[in-house]
Amino acid sequence: MKKILVISIALFMASGLANAQNLSLVYEGNPIPANQEFTINGPANGNEMIVEVEVTNETFLPMDVLVKKVENFVIEGSVNTFCWAGQCYPPFIYVSPNFTTIPAGGTSGVGEFSGHYNPNSMPGQSSISYVFFNNDNPNDSVMVTFLFTAIYTGLDLNKENEVAISEPYPNPANDFVKFDYNLNQEFSGQIKIYSLVGSLVKEIKITDQSGTIEMSTDKLQEGFYFYVFSSSNKELKTGRFIVSH
After folding, report:
1. Which of 43, 56, 148, 241 could form a disulfide with 168 if both were Cys (CB 3.0 to 4.6 A apart)?
2. Together in a domain, 122 and 43
3. Per residue in 79-114, pLDDT tens?
4. Is residue 210 included in any domain, yes or no?
5. Which residues lie below 8 Å from residue 94, measured CB to CB, with a gap of 6+?
6. Which residues pair with 214 in a beta bridge?
């Protein structure tokens, strides 16, 4: 009976060690729990967003660590890449071909891993996870997720052509949202409305030199929406508004 008990305890301890989390992460100088999620905001028409994560080997032996990129959801037209083990990989690489050896109790160097997201002027939110795992035991892993949110920050009015476009109102909107404009020139253009995930919700053609655009929002789901006021493929004003019923 004692032998069976000893064997059971030994198996239990071995199982616990096998399933122990031997990797941990540091983001912006702070240790983070496994499966943590962060939101990164940036302009849709700006530079790429970059995140850097450090990886710690919690064991008493050196560990060869690989990285896997998981695109949970990405905005069409955006581009994302990552760098690891001294090399940056193209967008179609999802698992790093090379590993970084992290010494026992050590942490990967600052900048050893970086995730890159370029919205390419496409507004919306992309969700990308990065999984760091032991090359000898892929189940020994830790993950972090970043929500890259690209928003239009609003361009200055085109003063050269004396274009005047109001902010959307009311904001938050319930049944409708309005834009006042005065273009002081012959003009044909459009205003496009996008959802948070970058889907085109509505496109309104504009042919009058001045006036008020009113768009119904009563059938839109609550949340953030982006607008782009443009002429001849040139953005005149961009921004966002909220729908709240």
Report:
1. 241
2. yes
3. 999 999 989 999 999 999 999 999 999 999 888 999
4. yes
5. 68, 69, 70, 71
6. 178
For residue 29, which phi and psi values (nearest 5 degrees)? 85, 0
In a domain, 3, yes or no: no
Q: Is 43 exposed, middle or buried (0-12, 13-18, 19+ CB in 10 A)?
A: middle
Return the half-sphere exposure (C-beta side, CA atoms, 13 A cut-off) of residue 232: 2
**Same-domain check for residues 121 and 194:** no
What is the Cα 13 distance to its own chain's centre?
A: 39
Query: Containing H/E element for 13?
Result: helix 2-18
- Sheet-wide strand order for 164-165: 164-165, 176-182, 210-216
| Separation between Cα atoms, residue 77 and residue 85, nearest integer Å | 27
What is the tens place of the pLDDT at every residue in 148-183? 988 765 444 444 455 678 888 998 899 999 988 877
Structure tokens at 63: 């560990």
pTM (2 decimals)? 0.64
Beta bridge partners, 239, equal 227
- Which of 124, 151, 178 represents a domain boundary (last residue)? 151
CA distance 216 to 193: 12
Q: Residue 125's closest CA among 147, 106, 144?
A: 147
Task: Identify whether the C-beta of residue 63 lies closer than 8 Å to the C-beta of residue 102.
Answer: yes
Q: Is 197 helix (H, G, I), strand (E, B) or coil?
A: coil
C-beta of residue 35 within 8 angstroms of C-beta of residue 72: no
Please report which helix (H) or strand (E) contains residue 50, including its range. Answer: strand 49-57
